[in-house]
Specification:
Low-confidence stretches: none
Shape: elongated
CATH architecture of the largest domain: 3-Layer(aba) Sandwich
Number of strands: 18
Bound molecules: ligand NPW, adenosine-5'-diphosphate, potassium ion
Number of helices: 16
Distance between the termini: 18 Å
Strand content: 15-25%
Structural class: alpha/beta
CATH superfamily of the largest domain: Ribokinase
């Protein structure tokens, strides 16, 4: 498991590490890593144009008043020593890191008020983990005036809320963000995560000092492999888990077909379908055992209820039957609307429940749209309803009722296609049926669903929900193989 640590947690770790090191060491480690990445970018970019590497390139630094500006200036000094023409613009009056500014000047760089209009690389050293959201006016003006081939954010894109990923004002949109020591929540959550570009982590020796519990958890292939239930020689279709799908209707048979496609792609051994779209499911998936009603379906180890099954009396009755079962349950789509209207149907529930709202469904459940701090938004709903909440979006967030927050690293916009949520929900129910806990199933399902979207959409292909379902087994295979041989995944 990887993670993202808050600014305060990074500072606590930093002060312990700094106590062991000569002054300035950490900043030099950060600047060295940053300069290396900038040089790599410059060489790649200029090689394409047939020009030389770092030598002769133009680099502009937007330098804020703190250590973030210091990192940028020290890195720029290293580039200046390799022959880059460096112009540094102080963006908060003339407040800049004095030692770093002197180092840049000694290396041949210049502090200027008006830099060239074009540069090969712009370094955003305006604000780091000490920044409040928003940008100083001077930085906004410079960003508008300069045409940069590549924008590299130092530690975080300046202007974002580092601890929540909210972007309430103006902020830098980076092509690359070079982060020091650890990810921060803004790298993985909310609108800020869309401003990060490619994330490069520079090791400055902080890891041993970081709190073992990050503010936001981020799953990796190894987690997925550890949680995955591979069938053993003594398994049969029942011990692998039976998943029940209560979805679809005569009006929306597609939801039933897609949800069962998702369930069939998971690790459980048996998929039962209960609902009025049984004929459609049977025709498309002969593997699925179909009944018309939940109470005829027999025993299952996990249920999915909701996609396309309506919000009328009959749907409410079916939802109640599902919730009477002692098995874990995924509630999606229409089931969320019903829960919003009749929250008491959840009150007797003891077995795990995973809710999978998008923003409008969240509003129906919570009474107001999710806050820009999407981790906190998912966590408050999870606590209030004593459920796991998977809040959908570009960076899907999962929160457990005890306050654990996960950000999904694999999402991609091609997944925003009708029915892809049905596939996700069916797949997740299969993970629950195989014995995975509620939060893990939600984290694993969004991780693999994101990868499946990438596999289905490779080469700019358009993607349908059926494509995502077909790609899910490939995503599972790629993940489990990569966990066995970590170097295989680029
Ligand atoms: N921790 C680590 O492990 C390491 C950290 N390192 C580096 O240090 C960075 C953190 O540096 P930092 O603490 O000096 O804070 P930083 O973000 O530069 O800015 C603070 C200044 O900005 C000002 N200010 C704030 N918001 C503002 C706004 N919206 N608009 C305008 N001004 C605003 C604020 O003003 P004040 O609050 O005083 O009014 C203060 O003067 C970190 O991101 C990383 O790059 C590495 O070198 C080594 C390892
Ligand atoms: N902009 C986006 N980028 C990445 N993923 C997205 C984006 N928008 C939606 N998604 C994902 O697409 C899926 C859509 O689910 P949902 O809204 O329930 O669709 P449907 O109800 O049509 O099945 C979710 O997994 C969600 O996280
Ligand atoms: K920055």
């Amino acid at each position: 498991m990887d993670g993202a640590w808050s600014a305060a947690a990074v500072r606590r770790a930093e002060s312990q590490l700094m106590a062991q090191l000569p002054p300035g060491t950490l900043m030099q480690r950060a600047a060295a890593g940053l300069a290396t990445e900038c040089a790599r970018i410059l060489m790649q970019q200029r090689r394409k144009r047939g020009t030389a590497g770092v030598y002769g390139s133009t680099v502009i630094v937007l330098a804020g008043p703190g250590d973030n500006g210091g990192d940028a200036l020290f890195a720029a000094a290293r580039l200046a020593r390799r022959g880059a023409r460096v112009f540094a613009v102080p963006v908060m009056g003339d407040r800049v890191h004095p030692v770093a500014a002197a180092a840049l000047t000694r290396a041949g760089g210049r502090l200027v008020a008006t830099p060239p209009r074009h540069c090969d690389l712009l370094l955003d050293g305006v604000l780091g983990i000490g920044g409040r959201p928003g940008l100083p006016g001077r930085a906004i003006d410079q960003l508008a005036a300069i045409d940069a081939d590549t924008i590299v954010a130092v530690d975080v894109p300046s202007g974002v809320d580092v601890d929540t990923g909210a972007v309430p004002g103006s902020a830098v949109t980076a092509d690359v963000t070079v982060a020091f020591g650890s990810r921060k929540p803004c790298h993985v959550l909310g609108r800020a995560a869309l401003l990060v570009g490619r994330l490069v982590l520079v090791d400055i020796g902080l890891a041993p000092y970081l709190d073992p519990h990050p503010a936001v958890r981020v799953a990796d292939d190894g987690d997925l492999a550890a949680w995955w239930h591979e069938p053993g020689p003594d398994d049969d279709k029942y011990t692998r888990g039976v998943v029940g799908v209560a979805a679809g209707s005569e009006r929306y048979p597609g939801a039933a077909v897609l949800a069962t496609s998702g369930a069939l792609a998971g690790p459980s051994g048996y998929v039962r379908y209960a609902g009025t779209a049984a004929e459609h499911v049977r025709r498309r998936h002969p593997e699925v055992v179909c009944t018309q009603e939940v109470k005829e379906a027999g025993r299952v180890q996990a249920w999915l209820a909701g996609p396309g099954f309506g919000t009328d009396e009959a749907a409410l009755a079916e939802l109640r039957h599902v919730l009477e079962s002692p098995a874990p349950v995924v509630l999606d789509a229409d089931a969320l609307t019903l829960i919003g209207e009749y929250p008491s149907v959840l009150s007797q529930r003891e077995a795990p429940v995973v809710l999978t709202p998008h923003d409008r469904e969240y509003e129906r459940l919570y009474g107001s749209p999710p806050a820009e701090d999407r981790g906190a938004a998912a966590a408050v709903l999870a606590k209030r309803l004593n459920c796991t909440v998977l809040l959908k979006g570009h960076h899907t967030v999962v929160a457990s009722s005890d306050g654990e927050v996960w950000a999904n690293p694999t999402g991609r916009p091609q997944l925003a296609t009708a029915g892809s949520g049905d596939v996700l929900a069916g797949f997740m129910a299969s993970l629950l049926a195989s014995g995975m806990g509620g939060a893990k199933a939600a984290v694993a399902a969004s991780y693999l669903h994101g990868l499946a979207g990438g596999i289905a959409g490779a080469g700019h292909r358009t993607v349908t929900a059926s494509d995502v379902a077909r790609a899910l087994p490939l995503a599972v295979g790629a993940t489990l193989t990569a966990a066995e041989t970590p170097s295989k995944r680029s």
